[in-house]
Amino acid sequence: MSEEHIHRQIGKGWRLALVLGMLAAITFGIGFKLISLYIDEQEFLQNQGDARSLRVIQVPAHRGIITDRNGDPIAVSAPVATVWVDPKMADLNHVSLGKLAQALGTSRTALVKKISAKRGKRFMYLKRQVEPVVADRIRALKVPGIHVERDYKRFYPAGEVASHLVGFTNRDGKGQEGLELSYEKALHAEPGKQLVLKDLLGRTVKHIRSESAAQHGQSLQLTIDMRLQYLAYRELKAAVTAHKADAASLVMLDAKTGEVLAMANYPSYNPNNPADRVSSTIRNRAVTDLFEPGSTMKPMTVAAALMSGKYGMRSVVDTAPGYMRVKGKTIRDHRNYGELDITGIITKSSNVGSAKLALSLEPGTLHHLLQNVGLGSATGIGFPGERSGRLPYLAESQVLQRATMSYGYGLSVTPLQLAQAYLPLANDGILSPVSLLHAEKPLPPVRVMPAQVARSVRGMMETVISIKGTGRQASIPGYRVAGKTGTVHKVGNGGYIEDQYISVFAGIAPASDPRVITVVMVDNPRNQEYYGGEVAAPIFARAVGGTLRVLNVPPDNLIQHDQQMVQR
User: Fold this and answer.
1) 92 near 108, Cβ under 8 Å?
2) Is residue 48 part of a domain?
3) Does any domain span residue 299?
4) Among 295, 350, 354, 432, which one carries the catalytic annotation?
5) For 471-495, what is the mean pLDDT?
6) Which of 221, 238, 258 is the last residue of a domain?
7) Whether 207 and 257 share a structural domain
8) Same-domain status, 197 and 293
9) 173 and 244: one domain?
10) Phi, psi of 489 (to 5 degrees)
C-alpha cells in the first residue's frame, strides 16, 4: 500500500468523524431545545397553538314568544342565518364565488371589491337574516373564508293588525317600540358560548366544551284576543277610508276583569317591513293621543249628582230656553229641550242640563269621581309612552270651567282611559285594574260608586241607543246596548279648530249583563258626517256585534230583534 493511499484513507476518516460529530452536535442541540421547550415554554406554546385553533363561538338563543290570550303567536323568533367572511382567508378566485354573490343578492365584482377592501381584517358581515334555504345553498358552495351561522329574526304573524300593540325589534333583536320595548328585559335572549377547535380554513373540527348555556327569553301571554283584534282593525280601516278621516282608534275591555281584549289603530304599518316604520304611523294612538272626551263624560256627571244625594231618578232640570250664560260665555244645546229628567239629560245629550247639575254640586264632587275612575293618571299597563291625560282641579270660583268639564271640555283623556272610566258603570260600581298581560293573581278591584247608581246610569245610557237618542246607529240586533256619543272640536295651536272634530262613542254590551266595554275614537272625519253618533257609533255596532257572536254571548233583547226582523 502506497503512502499516498494511506493519506487518502486517513483524510476520509477524519472528514467522516467531523461529519458524524457535527450531526451528533446538531442532534444534541435539537434534543436539548425540545426538552427546554417542553419544560420551560410548554405553557406559552400551548397558548399560541390554542390561539390559532381554539375559538369561542356564540350559541344563538331565541327571544321570548308573545302570544294572545288563546296562545296564538303574535311575535315569534324565526330561524335565519348570518353570513360573514374572514377576508384574510377568503379565496377570491374560487369557482363558486359567482354563485355566492348571486345568493347574497349582489354581483361577483361587487363582492370581490367589498372583501378586498377589508383584506387585513378577520371578520366582516356579508349579509344578516338570510333565509334558511339560501343559507343551505351558501354552505354547499364551501367557499374558503365564508361562514354561515344560525341566528333568529323576529316575525309578526298578525302584521299591521297588532303592530301598534306589539311594536318591533331592531336587527340586533332589541325592542324598539310597543311591548317589545317595555318588556325587553323579560323577552331578551342571552346567547350561549361554546369552545370549538377550528382548522386553518376556519371550519369547526371539534366541539370541545360548553362555556355557558344559551338562555332563551321569557314568553309573554297577552290578554288580547286576536279574533277580536282582527274585527276591530277591519272596522277602523273601513271607517277611516269611508269618512276620509286622519286616524281612528278602538279599545275593548273585558267588563268584569278590566283585561284589554282588543286595541287597534289605523293607519298602521307592517312591522315585518322596516320601510313601513315611519314616525306618523308607529305610535299607539290608543294610549298616546289625548282628546277632550266631550259628551261621553255626561254619564259621570249624572252619577256624581246621584251620589251626592241631591238628585234622584225622578229629579227634573229645566234646560229652557236651550242655552245659559256662564261668566260671559254661552253654553248651548242643539235645541230647547225644556224640562228634562235625569235620564233625559243623557238621552238628549243636554249640555245645559249637565252644566246645571255640576254647578249645583260641591266644587270638588265631579273632580273626585273622575279621579276615582282613573282620569288624570296613567292606567299602569306598562306601555311605553302612555299619556296620563289632564284632569285639572277647579276652585269654587272657576264656575265656567266646572260647567264645561261636566260635558267633557277642559280635560283630556286617551281612548284607553275613557274605556277604563266606564268599567264601574258596567261592573256595578267596581273598578278593576286595566291589564294587557295575563296574570294568575290580578290586582284587587276597588269600589268607586254604589252599585245602584252604576246600574241606574247604565239604564239611562240605554236610552241613547233608542229612537230618541243620539246613538241609534250603535244598536246591535238581539242585544241591549248602553252607551254615549261624543263630538268635540279638535284643539290646535290657537285654540279650537272650527271645522275639525273628534267623533267618539263609548259603549257597554250587553247592558243586562255587561261583557265588553268599547271606546271608538275617529280623528277628523271629513266626509260631511262628523257627529259621534254618525261616525263612531256604527263602528261600535259592527265591531261589538261581531265580538258578541265570537264570544258566544247569548242575546238579551230578542223581542227587539224580532220586531226589527218583522219591519224588514
Assistant:
1) no
2) no
3) yes
4) 295
5) 93
6) 221
7) no
8) no
9) no
10) -70, 140
pLDDT for res 377 = 94
Output the nine-digit C-alpha cell for 302.
249624572
Distance CA 431, CA 525 (A): 32
- Residues 210, 263 share a domain: no
List CB contacts of 511: < 8 A, sequence separation 6 or more: 458, 459, 461, 462, 479, 480, 481, 482, 556
Q: Is residue 42 part of a domain?
A: no
360 with 497, same domain: the answer is: yes
pLDDT of residue 62: 75
* DSSP-based three-state secondary structure for 500: strand
Active site residue 360: no
- 147: its cell numbers: 361562514
The CATH number that applies at residue 456 is 3.40.710.10
Sign of CA dihedral 10, 11, 12, 13: positive
Residue 210 pairs in a beta bridge with 194
Strands 339-341 and 430-431: unpaired
Distance CA 161, CA 233 (A): 6
Q: Are residues 383 and 321 in the same domain?
A: yes
281, 178 Cβ separation under 8 angstroms: no
Q: 381 in a domain, yes or no?
A: yes
Query: 134 lies in which domain range?
Result: 57-221
Average pLDDT estimate for 134-155: 85
Residue 192 CB partners (closer than 8 Å, separation 6+) = 58, 59, 61, 210, 211, 212, 213, 214, 215
pLDDT tens digits, 277-296: 887 789 999 999 999 999 99
Residue 197 sits in the same domain as residue 252? no
Residues in CB range of 481: below 8 A, 6 or more apart: 462, 465, 474, 475, 507, 508, 509, 510, 511, 541, 544
Contact (Cβ atoms closer than 8 angstroms) between residue 123 and residue 84: yes
Weakest-pLDDT range from 76-90, 393-407, 434-448: 76-90
Q: Which pLDDT score is estimated for 81?
A: 83
Number of domains in the chain: 2
pLDDT of residue 201: 53
Residue 93 has pLDDT above 90, yes or no: no
Rounded to whole angstroms, what are the CA distances from 222 to 117, 151, 305? 48, 26, 38
Partners of 82 in the β-ladder: 149
Burial of 298 (0-12, 13-18, 19+ CB in 10 A): buried
Mean pLDDT (the chain) is 87
Cell numbers representing residue 242 in the block: 269611508
Same domain, 198 and 245: no
Handedness of CA 269, 272, 277, 283 (dihedral sign): positive
pLDDT digits over 48-80, tens only? 455 555 565 566 677 899 999 999 999 998 888
